Amino acid sequence: MTTHDLAGFVAQANEAVQQEEQRLNAADAKLGDGDTGSMLRRVLAAMAKVDVAGAAGLSEAAMALAQAAMKETGSSLGTLVATAAMTFAKEAKAAGNRIEADDMGRVVSAMCDAVASRGRAATGDKTVIDSLDAIARALSAGPATLAGAERAARDALDAFRALPCKVGRARMFPEKSTGADDPGMLAIALLLAQGPRAEA
Question: Of the ranges 93-102, 150-159, 174-183, which one carries the lowest mean pLDDT score?
């Protein structure tokens, strides 16, 4: 992976969230404040302004992305985005700024652990942690591709849809969250989608 790869990923995610903002807001309105799409649009727009490709290395690029996210967000999900980026930066630094495709399962697993700790949630709670855990396992099993990560995110979304949320505001209204997509899990699936926007 290079800084150009990371820059391309951020640009793709930024484009995707602009198209999916209202869909994510609608999903969040069923369970929360209805602003997941708008918040992610602001965060990713700020991250897209970072000169990722021109950074000295992956660690420096990811840390700059984390700082941009933190400055732009006041939400819990935005903080988790920044936490994931900071963890990526730490993993890249530890690896001497050399991350291969086969390393991504381990890297995403570390991101999952950091986000779980920060968000005080665990696998099985129907949150982004379940998506990250599924992606980490899929990448570790191989092949480690973006398409594989997307499939894992969509499979996790499908697997948890019929279950109630166990953390956050939604946990108080299990009848509302049962049968509904968790907005964070939906966001990961949509932001990883390749090509035309597809129904989740």
Answer: 174-183
Torsion angle, alpha carbons of 132, 134, 140, 146, to 10: -70
* Cα separation, 34 vs 91, whole angstroms: 33
State how far the Cα of 96 lies from the Cα of 46, in Å rounded to an integer: 27
Q: How many CA atoms lie within 13 A of 1 on its CB side?
A: 30
132 in helix, strand or coil? helix
The token pair that represents 23 in the structure block:
């869909």
Whether residue 46 has pLDDT greater than 90:
yes
Dihedral of CA 163/167/170/172: which sign?
positive
Q: Following DSSP, what letter does each residue of 9-57 receive, concatenated?
A: HHHHHHHHHHHHHHHHHHHHHTTS-S-HHHHHHHHHHHHHTS--TTSSS
What is the reported pLDDT for 196? 44
156 Cβ partners below 8 Å, 6+ apart?
130, 131, 133, 134, 135, 185, 189
- How large is the C-alpha radius of gyration of the chain? 16
